[in-house]
Amino acid sequence: MVKKVGVLILVFSALLVLSCDDELKPSENNVFDAIPLLENIVDTHILPEYDTFNKDLAKLVAAKDAFLTNTTEVNLVSLREAYLQAYTTFQAAGKYDFGLANDIRFYLNLNSHPLNVEKVESFISTPESINLERIESQASQGFPAVDYLLNGLGTTDSEVLAFYTGSNAENYTFFLSKIVDRIANLTQQIVTDWENNFADIVKNDAEFADLIYNNYVEYFERRLRSTKIDFPAGKFSGIPNAKAIESVFKPEESRGLLLEAFNSARTFYLGTENSTSSWSKILLDLDEKGLDARIKLEFIEAEIALNALNENLSSQVETDNTLMLAARDALQDLVILFKADAVSVLEIPITIVDNDGD
Amino acid sequence: MRLVNILKFGALATTIIACSSDDSDVTPDNTLDVPLTYEFTRNGESTVSFGGQTTRLNQGSEILSDFKTFGTTETVIDDKFRTGQGFTDTTLNDTKNIRNKIAESVDYFSSNSVEQAEIRGVFDGFIANQVEILLSKYANADEVPVATRGNVGKLENRLVNEKGLELNQAFNKGLIGALTLDQIINDYLSLTEGAAIREANDAGTLDEGNPYTEAEHFWDEAYGYLYGASDADALSDPNSKHIETVVDDFLYKYVQRVEGDKDFEGIADRIFQAFKTGRAAITAGKYDESEKQANIIRLALSEVIGIRAVFYLKQGADKIRDFGLDAVNDGTAFHDWSEGYGFIYSLRFTQDPNTGKPYFSKTEVDAFLTTLNAGDGFWDLADKPEIADNMAEEIAAKFNFTVEQAQDTDAVKK
User: How far is CA B325 from the centre of its chain?
Assistant: First the structure.
């Protein structure tokens, strides 16, 4: 886990000890100019990505409302499209697990998989027991729950639709509505916080560069690599679990979501076409062209490895898990570059530690 | 915004600490002959003795292992706890026992037997409860069901009550305050401040049949409650040997943990130097100096309790935020909070040398515990970890350290 603030303070206090007699300049990074980078990260990555996601969620809520008003196959298909679109743009917005997003467990509440189907079913059958804020409900909500409600109840549209028109329809629509509204509500809280003042705070405090870098590497390792690939591939348990993938009830979408997350992580490193600073540009400015080139090359190799996977990652696990493990290794090469090589150049303390208790 | 306020606040506090010198507090009276190690002699014979303290600390360790041994009865643990008998390690069987030293200090409990009885009852309760809900109910850990909200069980290898609390941690970390800290800073160090004892010390009157004066011995007993179980060579500089491996289960272990946090580097040596210097001052009859050193110890050891209370509250909350349900299911977050619970209980036994009072009163500590026990306890805390954050802020606010400093990042992981 990351003790984000604590480490900053430590580093910070070390600087201060050295500079007691001098004017205190706590927000200056000696190695690179953090403020322009932070401005770019906030303005060309974080805010637009949240904005896109939030707009897609508005469409998802609208499609859900339309479906509940008029439970037709046409509306089910539209709702499913809106859900997939939002799940897709979530892959970018889900990268930023700090500030309020961390406080409200944004990523975990929106995308913990595999889904706890048993608990979801019990929520559906006894609506008064629904309490999505409880920590035990973490894996019984979010996009995996929507996936189940739209794709997992039956194999054809008419089978799925039957749940929303049959004798138990009220319970199903109630839960669907709760789940979708909660995704939208949690996201809106974060968007509002960024817009209110968090964006300005981050852009004006160089200390956030260390925190954001750590958060990025942590995301890359723990979510992009582990939850999306390691766990289904059984990397650590030795027992593959094809059901642990994202979009398990429509598994042919799973590689697409993975690629979306991967591409977003790559863009975060490189910068967008509108970015005037990025982690890549910082390395180039520091005369680390070789390191930057290695990172870019590993991104290409990882992309090749991901594209070699079946679009249905469950099938991939079941038919040839070695390709999953190969994709995992390709991402791990990047993790190593980020956690070892780049940090020594950037002089950023890595604060990620494993949650292995004692 | 919270994060940045924390950053600024932390920076300010570290600045003050980084730029001020507190050397004056630890410089010994230069006319005192302070040895390099905690070795004091009279006529060639060592005058240092703290066997009773070592015994109690080791008795405590065996009781702690009983807390995790299925089939252990309440009678077996009570015998050890109340009468000092029945230990597997028979060398621990003694007229000395832990219970009659809990909440026994001259400063806080000499005319406060009501609260003393209440506190001892709390520890009795931890034992009885652990036996009732776990040790007598299941044959082994494999039989224990996975804990859920409102239900006793296990979270990986952690055994928790219906609120997610590990009773063995509450017992252990609670004893750190109620036994070790209370005995050291509120009892034995204070006892050296008595007029009659000083008179006898000045007259060189030795304790009957022993090579030490009573004042010297009281001071050494305080020393023994901190270092007495660390190893057989507790008289040399314990800090030079135990940074990585601490065998003690009580206060000294956490002095070392705090020492491992760069923000508090030097605290272990400060405590050791104060013990040595104060002891030399007692022998020399320099009571201003011994009182000064006693206050250094009171402050530092009280801070250790406060720092660890804050550390565990925050660490549990951070794990919940970063790992969510996984940090509940693997037992790590509730383990942190269980340790924190015991350290919070221990806050009542701290002493602010400026006031002679605990940093947190019984009422204040009870309020913290009520919050932690409310509803489904740690399960509710996991839903709203900001409750733990706020409590950490409240605790740190009364001490001269910040929450951020207490959130150690480089220490030995525990």
Answer: 30
